[in-house]
Amino acid sequence: MEHRIEQIKKQLHAQSYKLTPQREATVRVLLEREEDHLSAEDVYLLVKEKAPEIGLATVYRTLELLSELKIVDKINFGDGVSRYDLRKEGAEHFHHHLVCTECGSVEEIIEDLLGDVEKIVEKNWGFQVKDHRLTFHGICKQCQEAAVQSTTTS
Q1: Would you identify the CATH topology of the domain 1-91?
Q2: 3-state secondary structure of 30
Q3: Which architecture does CATH list for 93-154?
Q4: pTM of the predicted model, to two decimals?
């Protein structure tokens, strides 16, 4: 984790920002709960446990700054809640997600599946792609298995 904090500190410094104690507390929560896709309110509640003096507005500002600097990605899975996801170290693009419409689980796909699509878009439309996001909505393996079990036991 300390290596990642140091990397983020360098990214902030490169853009003339400092890793203040408030920002560091927010980043630490995101690192500790990286797989959870936390909302700003979730982050705030967890930061508050570590640093009770930090306010909600500070957490919001920090998340927005980290988002602008592409340290975190702000995502919405169609439920009206913005969530924050740390960009993987050295990642050129945002990673992809599988969102289960039954249980709400979110799974990450780290591999970049859209390299060829980007090339086609750039060639056919003359559009220079800077980033992309891909979210699949469907039914996860566990929910499918549960559905099969409930129909075989009925």
Answers
A1: Arc Repressor Mutant, subunit A (1.10.10)
A2: helix
A3: 2-Layer Sandwich (3.30)
A4: 0.68
